[in-house]
Each structure stands twice: as C-alpha cells, then as structure tokens.
C-alpha cells in the first residue's frame, strides 16, 4: 500500500514538472501562418542606382544600360542585420547537433544556378533544422568541411543541392526550393569558385588577370551549346515552370537572405515542416556566415553588350515571376 502511494506521489510530481516545462517553453516555438511563406518581399533594403554610362542617344533605359540594384548587392561586405545581441561561435561549431534524419523526409531539391549561394543556404538550413543537407554532387571539400551529407540524395537529408534544372520535374523530388540571385553577382561568384574554390576572392592584385579570364568564362558553352551569358536566363525560366505544377515550390531570393534573414529562415522552415525554436533562430542568424560564404569586391568586368543583355534578361524574368506567383515573388531589386 505504501509503495503504491509512493508511486502515485512520484508520478504526480513528474506530471507537474512536465506541465511546467511545457508551459515555460511553449513561447519559444514560432507559429507561422501561410501568409509568411507566401510573402517574400515585404521589406526592401535601401536602393542605390548604379548608372552605367552609355550613349545618351539610346532610346530607353535598357539600351542605356541603367539599372537598379539593392545596396546589399552593390556592397556585400555588410553583415546580415539582426535586432539583438549576438554571441558568435567558433566557425566549426553548430547551433544544435547535426545529424541525418531518423525518418525519411520528402526529397526536396535545393535548386539554383552555380554562384547563387546554394552552399551558404545549405549551411543556414543545417543550422536551423539540425539535419544534414545533401547534394547530387560529391564535393570532397564540402564533405570534409561542414557538410557530411554531401553526395546523399535520399530523404535522410533535409534538402538536396542541384544545379540540374531538367531534373526538377522528375518523380524523385517531392518539393523544390528555387534560390535566385542577381545574375551580375551570380556570374562573378561562379567565376571566383571556378578559379579559386568555395571561398576565393578577387583582390586588387589579380583583377587585371580576372578581367581577361572573365571574358573567356562568359563565352564558355555548355554541352547543349548555350553560353554562360544565357545560362541564368534559360535555367531560371525553366525552373519557374515547376511553380505552376502541383509540386510544392518555394522561391527564395539571395538578396532577401541578406536583408531579412530572420523572415526568410522562418519561411524556409515552415515550407520544410520544421518547428522553429527562438534560441536556434537567433543562433543561426548570429552565425550566418559559415565557412563558405564569399564576400564581394568592387569588381565589374561586364562589357556594355553584356550589361544590356543581362539587364534585359532580368526584366523578362521579373515579369515571369510576377505572372507566375504575383508581386510577392518579384525580384527584390528594381529593374
């Protein structure tokens, strides 16, 4: 009898502790409405007009080469903004233990063209979810430096990196995240990776060499005969076709990750079906850089012809984004 009464007392104490713990931590989970997932560009960074001087006799802004880019695109040396005190960790530390998922998740493609920040977004997703990200590639540098899921393409990982736009509509992928970045910046980032790896930078010493290399780089053709100059345009329009299908798709703009990382992480977690803990969210923002996020320099190697061509591509893609999923999907920089 005494043992039964003692067991009852212990059980009651455990229940009370659990109730108090749940109440204490219930406010640390962020509840997200669907409107947060849909709205991508509620906040705009201050914009500066970069005026590339052209022949004043040309009739319109496209031909004159004028275009607008957000200040963060022109100057990527600024840190991600946050509204609380940060406690940066060692670059090899993580905001929570990382692991492969114990249950098979829906295979989710993380698609972008090269140079769009795919590896950086993988770092952010790993930090906020605690699950490794995978890839259709086998990059030994990434495998040994923070991405143990490199090469994994199953539901054991939270997303699978890919640059293969023609595979997005295949049965393997149940969901798709499309990461878009301003092509002027994406091409430069890929140039740096091509010549120096995931963290290389362009310095004043090697700018002259890189200027020459850039011309050859942009003329490079794929096996389908498409030049690199056309690659962002063609691949992005192809990827947007997925948005109109019945496959769940989320569009993420690289520039929004720079200017409003908190909101974008909430959108991404909600899309992936993960709960968001406030302390993990704050930690992820404080340690957003990771080991594979390049900083940009003041380097603009584009010719007049390339500038006009890419600017026209941006405008067409922006119109397609608006037609596909409304103003909320529009590019976060003016064109």
TrEMBL record:
Q: Which GO terms describe its molecular function?
A: sulfotransferase activity
This protein's superkingdom?
Eukaryota
The UniProt entry's sequence similarity note says: Belongs to the WSCD family.
- Per UniProt, residues of the Sulfotransferase domain are 172-284
Name of the protein: Sulfotransferase domain-containing protein
Which Pfam families does the protein's record reference?
A: Sulfotransfer_1
């Amino acid at each position: 009898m005494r043992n039964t009464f003692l067991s009852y007392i212990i059980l009651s104490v455990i229940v009370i502790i659990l109730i108090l713990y749940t109440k204490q931590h219930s406010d640390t989970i962020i509840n997200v409405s669907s409107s947060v997932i849909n709205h991508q560009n509620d906040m705009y960074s201050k914009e500066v007009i970069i005026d590339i001087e052209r022949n004043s006799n040309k009739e319109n802004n496209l031909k004159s080469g004028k275009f607008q880019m957000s200040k963060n695109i022109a100057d990527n040396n600024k840190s991600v903004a946050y509204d609380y005190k940060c406690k940066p960790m060692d670059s090899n530390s993580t905001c929570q233990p990382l692991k492969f998922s114990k249950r098979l998740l829906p295979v989710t493609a993380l698609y972008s063209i090269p140079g769009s920040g795919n590896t950086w977004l993988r770092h952010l997703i790993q930090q906020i979810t605690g699950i490794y990200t995978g890839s259709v590639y086998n990059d030994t540098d990434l495998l040994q430096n923070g991405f143990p899921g490199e090469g994994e393409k199953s539901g054991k990982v939270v997303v699978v990196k890919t640059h293969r736009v023609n595979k997005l509509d295949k049965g393997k992928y149940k969901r798709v995240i499309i990461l878009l970045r301003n092509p002027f910046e994406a091409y430069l980032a890929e140039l740096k990776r091509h010549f120096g790896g995931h963290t290389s930078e362009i310095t004043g010493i090697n700018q002259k060499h890189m200027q020459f290399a850039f011309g050859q780089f942009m003329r490079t053709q794929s096996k389908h005969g498409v030049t690199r100059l056309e690659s962002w345009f063609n691949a992005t329009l192809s990827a947007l076709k997925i948005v109109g299908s019945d496959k769940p798709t989320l569009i993420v703009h690289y520039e929004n990750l720079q200017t409003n990382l908190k909101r974008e992480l909430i959108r991404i977690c909600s899309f992936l079906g993960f709960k968001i803990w406030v302390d993990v969210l704050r930690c992820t923002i404080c340690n957003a850089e990771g080991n594979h996020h390049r900083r940009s320099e003041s380097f603009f190697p584009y010719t007049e012809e390339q500038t006009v061509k890419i600017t026209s591509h941006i405008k067409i893609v922006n119109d397609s984004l608006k037609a596909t999923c409304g103003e909320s999907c529009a590019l976060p920089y003016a064109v």
